[in-house]
Amino acid sequence: MDTDHTGGKSRGANDASASQRPASDPPCSSVYLSPAGLRTNTGPRRGNGVLIRGFNSARGTVTLVALCLVLVIWGVLATYLALTTRAMQLSNRSFQSELSHQLAEAGIEEGLRAFNRNDWSDWSNSGTSVDWTLDTTNKRATATIIYPANKFAQGTTATVKVRVDNYDAYSLDAPWISSKNYRPNELVGYNGTWYVCIRAHSNQSPLNMNYWVPESIPWQWNAAKTYVADDLVVDVDNGTWYRCTSGNSGRQPSAYPAYWQSLVAIHTTAPAWPYVATGQEALLINGGAFTRLTNQNSTWGYNYTWRWRSGPTYNFDDVVYYNGVWYRCLTRHTNNGNWTYSVQNSGAGYWEPVESISAWNSATSYSIGDVVYHSASARWYRCVIAHSNQAPSTSSAYWSDSPLLSSEWNANTQYSSNDTVIYGGVWYLSLQNNNRNNNPATDTSRWIGANTTNASYRWNATSAYVVGAYRSYGGAWYRCIVANTGRTPNNTAYWTSVLDQSSGVKTGTPVVYAEATVNIGDGTTNRTQLRAPISPASLFPNAVAANNNLTISSSGGTVDSYDSLQGTYTSQVGSADTNYSAMLVAGGSSTPALSINNTTTVRGYVAASPATSSPFAPQASFSSGTTIKGPSSPVSPNVDLSRVSRSPFITNPSIQSTPSGVSLPVPTSWPSSTLSIGTAGAVTPSVYEYSGSFDLSGDTLHINGPVILNINGELRTRGTNGKIQVNSSGSVRIHFNGRLRTANTTGSGLNNTTSDPKKMIILGTSSLTTHQHLSATYPFYGILHMPNGTLSINNSPHHYGAISANSVSFGNAANVHYDTSLRYTAIPGVDSAYTVSDLRELPAGEQATMP
């Protein structure tokens, strides 16, 4: 069909296809880009009935092409801008998310810092400020951390809120309060003196000795002690005083009336006659005189345990009561009526007031928890913030005149239903009243741990709860205060972690919350919440830890583990749960840092620092006979490489200074080469000092109560019966700055009869090579920590506990049985700290209430 180019019909749909067009007539445009630049087709072209030729034909084409290019470029730019905007948004969100996480972690660290130092004061640094507020009623510390403008990026602002529940859980004071219910063995402060509860009660003044005794006297009956006539004790099973009527050992007063006479009361002022009913006895303490009261008469002058009188022979550390003051014997002597030896003449070197033990010294640096007696104010004090040269009487910010109210489980304390204690790193809830001497870790009928898997005690988002319900959540116990379903225990409107104790104290698990909010200039916001329960830091997490080299030279030894809270070592041998958790670690840079040269069996793990070149393998060497396995390791090979690490974890805690104490007499002056120190049943340790080499050559030092012994020199035991022995009621922490030398002589060494490693702590500060020859006579139950010394262990002793030193070598078989309970036990004498036991980001359904 022909086409009328001058104004007839337009070209039909099937007319002149592109294949029929001349080659000079491009289908789109006469303008195109070439390597030479902008080109124009000069040939004839039909368009809209007009024949366009030469330059004029190119102008319209250029305009059209330009418009096309603009549209194309605009489309590309729009797509690019959309993509870049989206990328920027994602980048901002990623930045916000990462920043909010980091700032929330910073909030957790700030809460942990304040908790560890017990310092809740405000502070600022480089424009960043922290404002702390204490809510003593709800036991909650809160803070807001403000960062300066443009701290992180232009237009970005950030705020962190911190909340610490039970901020005083490990530092609660224990002043006597008349309205509280007290239980046996609880400690209180009253008028500058510390008292121990001996009978459950309320509203009884500490001056009433039927319910309280001064903390320093030996009041509690001890099954391991031999008693003689007229000894006075309390049987904590019934809170009753008894007078020994016939010498005995191991016969509990409440069960053996033939050996003990119960005392219905102890009076400090004369009661009305008749004093007691027929067949009963009471005691009157009036000044220095003790009077036995019966229905028939009152008899003065009996030689009761506490009463000073002329005539008897007194030994070092004997405690007597005279004229309203307690005294301790400094030098063994017999009075025989000589005024020189009278307690009234205490300056003569034979007696001293008990209160002078642990006297405050302006030159001593004190750590949190240290206890001193300040003679100028005649009061006991406890350090609450580490410091030096702050007098207790004028520095209340650093000292408290009340003892520490401990949340640690005590076997002699009587607990009631819903009381909480911490034991073995776990918080437990008491399920019964009259709960005494029942181990929380094993007695599931009386205690339930916050780590329980029992669904009936764990919080569940779908369950309905009534007021008063107790539930565990994230390692802590909570009590419902408003009925609810699905409300998280982190919400303070419905739950509280501050629990009422039967003693009248409010306390619970300390938990840190941190919420970080980040705002960017474009209006987007990101918020992160973290939750972190606090627990004592692990100070001795390894069986043997060496800062440098650890070497085992001889064969036949076994390194393994057990948990002293769950029973004896023997009962746990082969247990998959407790017997394969020992760690041998060495942090030295030499090769090998850790060397096991013979047939030693390790049930657990080994770790050594990595080599400095690829493949950065742990610097450890094992002989062909070495065995390192776990409970499920294959039979072959002997060394399970999955239990060999190049990441040794060595805590290396610093050793603290200690308060001054009483000078121990020279061993050669001890009666019968034996000396007994420490007060059975005491809560506050007695502090002793010795200057020079403390050489027990055939001499025995008995530890009968909590003791701190400072030795300015060498600690040595040798010869028959040359030993330090911790008896059933004792515990000892020994500081020394010389060598440690314990010879392999029958009957000598370090004998901890309690079999509890936490009851014997040996701390050495010397950098000398330290030789440790532990006697084969006694296994060593304890902690041996010498961060600066080289420790050589010979004679194949069995060590139950933990060893830590700069370098350690076993000349004979290594027999070390690590007590895993040390992983979550605060050890006195070293820099104890609290750490995060769990860190978790809270999802939307479990968000916490923040300030």
Number of helices: 1
Based on CA atoms alone, the radius of gyration comes out at 39 Å
Proportion of beta-strand residues: 35-45%
Query: How many β-strand stretches?
Result: 70
Helix content: under 10%
Mean pLDDT: 84
Shape: globular
Low-confidence stretches: 1-58
Structural category: mainly beta
For the termini, the CA-CA separation is: 88 Å
Please summarize the sheet with the most strands: 8 strands, antiparallel
What do these coordinates show?
This protein is mainly beta and 851 residues long. Among the domains are: 29-87, no CATH class; 98-169 and 513-536 and 840-846, no CATH class; 420-509, Seminal Fluid Protein  PDC-109 (Domain B) (Ribbon); 662-805.
Outline of the structure:
By secondary structure, this protein is mainly beta.
Name a few traits of the molecule.
single chain, mainly beta, 8-stranded antiparallel β-sheet, 6-stranded mixed β-sheet, 1 helix, disordered N terminus
Write the layout of secondary structure elements.
Elements: E1 31-34, E2 37-40, E3 45-47, E4 50-52, H1 56-117, E5 123-125, E6 128-135, E7 140-146, E8 157-165, E9 181-182, E10 187-190, E11 193-197, E12 201-202, E13 212-214, E14 226-227, E15 232-235, E16 240-244, E17 248-249, E18 260-267, E19 281-286, E20 289-293, E21 298-300, E22 313-314, E23 319-322, E24 325-329, E25 333-334, E26 351-353, E27 365-366, E28 371-374, E29 379-383, E30 387-388, E31 399-400, E32 420-423, E33 426-430, E34 447-449, E35 464-465, E36 470-473, E37 476-480, E38 484-485, E39 495-496, E40 499-500, E41 506-507, E42 511-519, E43 525-536, E44 544-546, E45 550-552, E46 558-562, E47 582-586, E48 594-596, E49 601-608, E50 620-622, E51 627-629, E52 644-645, E53 662-663, E54 674-677, E55 686-691, E56 694-697, E57 700-703, E58 706-712, E59 715-718, E60 723-726, E61 731-736, E62 740-742, E63 749-752, E64 760-764, E65 769-772, E66 780-793, E67 798-810, E68 815-819, E69 834-836, E70 840-841
